[in-house]
Amino acid sequence: MGKIVVVTTVIGIVLAILGERIIHFRKRVWASREIEQNHLPNCHLIKGIEYGSEDITILPSGLAFISSGLKYPQTPSFAPDSLGKIYILDLEDQKPRPTELRISRGFDVDSFNPHGISTYIDKEDDTVYLFVVNHPQFRSTVEIFRFVEEDYSLTHLKTVQHELLHNVNDIVALGPESFYATNDHYFTQHLLRSLETFSCLAWSNVVYYSPTEVKEVASGFYMANGINISPDKKYVYVSDVLDSAVHVMEMNQNYTLTPIKAIQLGTLIDNIEVDPETGDLWGGCHPNGWKLFNYNPEDLPGSEVVQIKNIHSEEPIVTQVYADNGSVIQGSSVATVYKGKLLIGTVFHKALYCDLE
Ligand SMILES: *[C@@H]1O[C@H](CO)[C@@H](O)[C@H](O)[C@H]1NC(C)=O
Ligand SMILES: *[C@@H]1O[C@H](CO)[C@@H](O)[C@H](O)[C@H]1NC(C)=O
To answer: Which GO-annotated molecular functions does the record name (predicted)?
Structure first.
């Protein structure tokens, strides 16, 4: 008798926990919106980008770096056998066309699987460093390159690997060899990763890396994804995609991050770009997580771009600037502005360039 009571109780508790987790997960990912079209004038797809433009970052000169061809667990890919690439797009051109950057010898291009990117410019000699999150064989490394503008090539300088950088999604460069990185999961093993997402465990974090010190500097995210820094380099912004929120954190001298506030957006925000002039944040967002994770050509995942103004004020202004139901562009993961134009990138689809007005 006693045994049966114990077993029934244990089963009951397990079911209760599971039920609570399912509700939690539904709230975060399934209960997603159908999207109304909110298009911009003069939009056109960038010819030549067909298999993703997951992250984009623009240099002050108008050169945009684009990471393409990501293969990632739980994420669709239209070209699972194609190699990962970094494209460059000169936004000063009337009709910008992407050029694939050549990568120096010695770097294993066959396993290149680029994800989040970030640049650092050395003020002394104008050297441009490109930091790329890479997933060779689904592991996580950070590759540091020097960009050679004369012949549009990348010279590979260093591969960074560290046990604390176990599931890196995005990075923001702080110096020629230092950065913050988000780990979007705690577990690396595929099944455990899925369980972690499903259970909505808040075990994802931000890590500081330099050649002399590596440490966790922020934690407690459901799925820390995009990361970027304010133009005055005082604040760091982290998107928690499963929480539909942007976290604002203050950078301390010892590189730890102090949480200031979180802004709820009601859409699954992926990468964050910061307008260097206004300090506005631009987010590439997924209005419907279920459609993204369970790709169905009959029921496409849409795209959404939000702008956040006055983020440090009492009342930040959040505006939906662009939205599409998937008929034009699917799975937007990044949005960034240059001289009155908006460039939208996607996890596995194309890239769109629009006039803002
Ligand atoms: C880092 O700096 C912050 C703010 O000054 C301080 O609260 C924290 O204790 C420091 N952490 C370490 C490990 O020194
Ligand atoms: C998306 O919107 C277009 C109109 O812009 C419409 O023709 C199409 O049917 C819509 N697709 C879905 C799946 O709702």
So the answer is: arylesterase activity; metal ion binding
Domain ranges across the chain = 1-29, 41-355
DSSP tally for the chain: helices H, then strands E: 3, 25
What's the gap in Å between 79 CA and the centre of ligand 2?
25
Round to whole Å and give the CA distance between 69 and 88: 14
For ligand 2, atom 1, which residue shows the shortest CA distance?
325
Give pLDDT tens digits for 174-223.
Answer: 999 999 999 999 999 988 998 898 888 999 999 999 999 999 999 999 99
Strands 179-183 and 63-68: unpaired
Whole-model pTM?
A: 0.93
Q: Is 117 annotated as a binding residue?
A: yes
CATH topology of domain 41-355: Neuraminidase (2.120.10)
Give residue-wise pLDDT tens across range 283-333.
Answer: 999 999 889 988 999 999 999 999 999 999 999 999 999 999 999 999 999
Check if 115 is active-site: yes
